[in-house]
Write a structure and sequence with these properties.
This protein is mainly alpha-helical and about 70 residues long. The protein has one domain. The chain is built from two helices and no strands. Helix 1 packs across helix 2. The longest helix has about 45 residues. Keywords: Membrane, Transmembrane, Transmembrane helix.
């Protein structure tokens, strides 16, 4: 049996360690979900721009971009 300082029991140490492990797992899950969402948004924007240029032509896209950004 490991001798711990007075006032610290084994159960509290185990609870704290398991809470840290659960937090780390949740953090990695959330970060991977965020990555998937960001990549999906970026891909859909790129697909939208590509379809716009293909179907409406580059001039329409450039004119809209100019009017949006005041170029």
């Amino acid at each position: 049996m490991i001798q711990l300082p007075q006032g610290i029991n084994v159960i509290s140490v185990v609870v704290i360690l398991s809470a840290l492990v659960i937090f780390y797992i949740l953090k990695s899950i959330v970060s991977s979900i965020v990555k998937v969402v960001v990549y999906t948004i970026l891909a859909s924007i790129l697909i939208f721009i590509t379809l716009w240029v293909v179907f409406l032509g580059g001039d329409s896209f450039l004119n809209t971009a100019r009017s949006l950004f005041g170029i």
